[in-house]
Amino acid sequence: MPIYNAPLADMKFILNDVFQAEKFWQKNENLAHLDAATAEAILEEMAKFSQNVTLPLNRTGDEEGAKYDNGTVTTPAGFKAAFQQYAEGGWIGLGADAEWGGQEMPKMLTVLSDEMLFATNPSFMLYPLLSVGAGMALNSYASQEQKETYLPKIYTGEWAGTMCLTEPHAGTDLGIIKTKAEPNNDGSYNITGTKIFITGGDHDLTENIIHLVLAKTPNAPAGSRGISLFIVPKFLVNEDGSLGERNPVNPGSIEHKMGIKASATCVMNFDAAKGFLVGKENEGLAAMFVMMNYERLSMGIQGLGASEFAYQNAAQYATDRIQGRSVTGAKSPDKVADSILVHGDVRRMLLNARANNEASRAFAVYVGQQLDITKFSTDPEAIKAANNRVALLTPIAKAYLTDTAFQAVLDAQMCFGGHGYIREWGMEQCIRDLRIAQIYEGTNGVQSQDLIGRKTIKCEGEFLAEYISEIRDFTNSLDAELNFIKDATLDAATEVESVTKYILEATQENPEFPNSAAVDYLHVVGLLSFAYMFARIANAAKEKEGDFYQNKIALAGYFVQRILPELSVRITKVKAGSEVIMSFSEDYFTHQS
Amino acid sequence: MPIYNAPLADMKFILNDVFQAEKFWQKNENLAHLDAATAEAILEEMAKFSQNVTLPLNRTGDEEGAKYDNGTVTTPAGFKAAFQQYAEGGWIGLGADAEWGGQEMPKMLTVLSDEMLFATNPSFMLYPLLSVGAGMALNSYASQEQKETYLPKIYTGEWAGTMCLTEPHAGTDLGIIKTKAEPNNDGSYNITGTKIFITGGDHDLTENIIHLVLAKTPNAPAGSRGISLFIVPKFLVNEDGSLGERNPVNPGSIEHKMGIKASATCVMNFDAAKGFLVGKENEGLAAMFVMMNYERLSMGIQGLGASEFAYQNAAQYATDRIQGRSVTGAKSPDKVADSILVHGDVRRMLLNARANNEASRAFAVYVGQQLDITKFSTDPEAIKAANNRVALLTPIAKAYLTDTAFQAVLDAQMCFGGHGYIREWGMEQCIRDLRIAQIYEGTNGVQSQDLIGRKTIKCEGEFLAEYISEIRDFTNSLDAELNFIKDATLDAATEVESVTKYILEATQENPEFPNSAAVDYLHVVGLLSFAYMFARIANAAKEKEGDFYQNKIALAGYFVQRILPELSVRITKVKAGSEVIMSFSEDYFTHQS
């Protein structure tokens, strides 16, 4: 059976040494209730839960899958008990406001607890994740009465949440959705339409499910400015909070997917289901984006979790598997062969994964800290700066972390040879489960368009300039013994600045330029971000003694020599422009002659 | 249902225009029976078979899978009838000698017919593929009597073949296998041991299965010099050719795999099964490598087939799916949105796939032609040169074609967004099915070690120097209007020459250098090879008129601008050396602190 040991030592290093979290929390009155010891205790509890409860359900969940039968969805054996245990532990409301029963933990911490769940059972994790996302959207946009009705039950895990956006003909382009919301006399609406790809659209984990649904009211403006957000509960809620009549919102089927098979992905049919407007008419997309941004960071964490899980298993397998001999002479002469760890190519795959994992973990905590500033700070300047940073880095967190993680799980599978391709070692499931993270919540291509368009060109590079300014300030302060990462990071910053200027100019002449350059540009900013993370990691490690810390600095060296060089080819591709890409006729693509 | 239109126009272009196959065949007395019209007719027949017979069985085969029950393996519904139809069409012996009932078609042609089968049903294709591989090994090393007994029945499809190499503890390192062969008085041997990952180890497609088994005789030398090859038939064959008693070789189970689920991958137990030595004792590995090299080129074709299939489906989906608007204004103002082909990033993914497909197809035919020279030529000089070329390029054909294809199928899936992740569009199966091609028949990492070690360092770069000399001769002859590909190819050749020299020198000082550099070096030589193929494609297209040919030249331009730049980062990584990789202790990999 696959192994997983929660990387607590690394998590504590990132929190305590790299980001000095306790100091940050204590400085902020809204977070002063938290100290490092409490944070560590929370991580240790989640380590136990993920290792003992969700990990053993991962393969069985995949094999059994969520099941649809006659209008009802059933989760695999053990999921309901695990969900109840998770809910009873207070985990669903870990980051939620105390007013609604939450524990008010900062995102810096919850990203780490989320990582362990994603590592051990991504299908399971998606159920509470959607609840938390729905809770966030309600917390930001719903009325006080709506919050009182729904939020406490969501955080206790009695009810769950979903987000219902996609329709058969409308995914990325939500402006063309067809689901209708017709007003009733009592202020409610009748919601009619079909939504697809609804994670947790139906299941047996909770007594009620609160759907957040995008729909169009009569005479709403065309496009994305005419979309409203509605609460559509599976069971209507009586005034006393008890469950009332069954609302006509039903799963029509579940999808048969490549992976995350224990997560029920539903087609949801709304047949004049009663819905309640959240916020104002036609302003639904903004409310949904609160949830989307939260999910997008989480998808990056899904990548990190999977990659850490895959790394640990591949490293163990490579240690145990003996095959061939070291070129410098037998390392285990008492055995018929050496461990495959003597081969540089096996190490290369493992070190790529480990370097990306450690940088990803630091980056997730960094973005979490920025989100915490936007939520908990009392300084308007700091909040504004952090909002810009979050806007810039959310697409990186979603797409770059999942792109690097997917390569890492592929490499981990490769370390197993043929054994990686069969079910028992868990690698093939890990790949199938992770692949969706590059696709859903806006494909990584769409994330890249967001980064280059709304987050860069629209503000004329301001968000990036602010980020690079911080990177330079920090990196310039590094000691001379860290020159290898200092120089590499500063050089990368200059190159990123320069290619961004190039993009801004090229776009003025050719509006098609950015779309073709987007994915490569996202990797450019991702590489710089990981260099910055390694600068921070190396700086923190340098203060300490022992192999653990020395290895952090060595891994930063590996990153500089073997991963950061990707920057130049990405920049070359950005500059290659869109001419050749757009020069082919549309017909060309489907015609061979 | 997924579509597939055999790319006949491109295949004919590659055969007739790029490689002028008929001229090559007619020049060679052993191939003079073949002309272009016959070759095209064969391709057209296979196009029908693959589109009408194997394509419809692809998804059902995946869903049903091969089944093991009480010592017997059953293939999915329809497979047996399809196999019979395939066998009756004479396809199994398409490339085999006439003496044994084959059609003596050259590899240049069979790679193209293989591509169509791999595109439409890789699981199906593996059954005849193993038969053909076993036939080749027997044809090269078996006695006349053995050939007479087994080869005709294999090529009619009455019997099938397997290769039994891997054991639970021994995959890449065959020197440590434990299967024993104990001599009997009648000249036969008793074979005892367990083999795993045996493709087609048991099935219901044929009345007999001829296993080729690696085993060790008593007192055989240790390591790979003590391995012998045996024929172990499922049913022993009587002197009159009829089937005799059941040999104690049985499937113990079948593997549950990520993909190619309709291909039975068996654990095979040999319990003193009667075996017959092929060739000489202790020389089994050489005989098996005849088969392995054949399979390795085929795995590259598996990549090409999958990538062409994925490309066609993604291009069609991208044409049909409307979502968002072109940045330069609506292209389909009568619809609610434009086709996603207006987005540069979607085109980038499709063009990457198409460029790699067209170069891969040319490369497969090129390597096929070299194999044909080794087999059919009467000129010893030409045979020696072709043998060197095949040795050099086999690892590229296996690993580079599958690496680029795997990226292409991932990109194709991404073009579908969430629809790519669900079963109905066929993309997720394509990915699962293709992934094994990077792993089996020697992982792509092992192929890279083969390229850099045995094929480059061992001959001090001679094979590569010969190849580059041919590339320079050809490319220098290009017209000035093709300077864009001429210059790019010549520059690449110089860079590859230079980094190869670097490797030869670095290895003298540090024997661990090549292992760490191998995968990047394989991509270096792969990129040069594709540049060379595009030089040949562009040169052939330039002579012709019409969009089909103009687009070939445009695609060569795309390759130069957007794919070939990978060369520089690969070279940087090669030169990064092994120091940092080998600097970590073995303990580091499995320890977090």
TrEMBL record, chains A, B:
Residue span, Acyl-CoA dehydrogenase/oxidase N-terminal domain: 39-158
Keywords: FAD, Flavoprotein, Oxidoreductase
EC number(s) recorded for this UniProt protein: 1.3.99.41
InterPro entries on file: Acyl-CoA_dh-like_C_dom, Acyl-CoA_Oxase/DH_mid-dom, Acyl-CoA_Oxase/DH_mid-dom_sf, AcylCo_DH-like_C, AcylCo_DH/oxidase_C, AcylCoA_DH/ox_N, AcylCoA_DH/ox_N_sf, AcylCoA_DH/oxidase_NM_dom_sf
Catalytic activity: 3-(methylsulfanyl)propanoyl-CoA + oxidized [electron-transfer flavoprotein] + H(+) = 3-(methylsulfanyl)acryloyl-CoA + reduced [electron-transfer flavoprotein]
Segments forming domain Acyl-CoA oxidase/dehydrogenase middle: 163-271
Essential cofactor(s): FAD
Residue span, Acyl-CoA dehydrogenase/oxidase C-terminal domain: 282-450
Domain of life of the organism encoding this protein: Bacteria
Domain Acetyl-CoA dehydrogenase-like C-terminal: 468-584
Gene Ontology MF terms: flavin adenine dinucleotide binding; oxidoreductase activity, acting on the CH-CH group of donors
Task of the protein: Involved in the assimilation of dimethylsulphoniopropionate (DMSP), an important compound in the fixation of carbon in marine phytoplankton, by mediating the conversion of 3-(methylthio)propanoyl-CoA (MMPA-CoA) to 3-(methylthio)acryloyl-CoA (MTA-CoA).
Protein name as catalogued: 3-methylmercaptopropionyl-CoA dehydrogenase
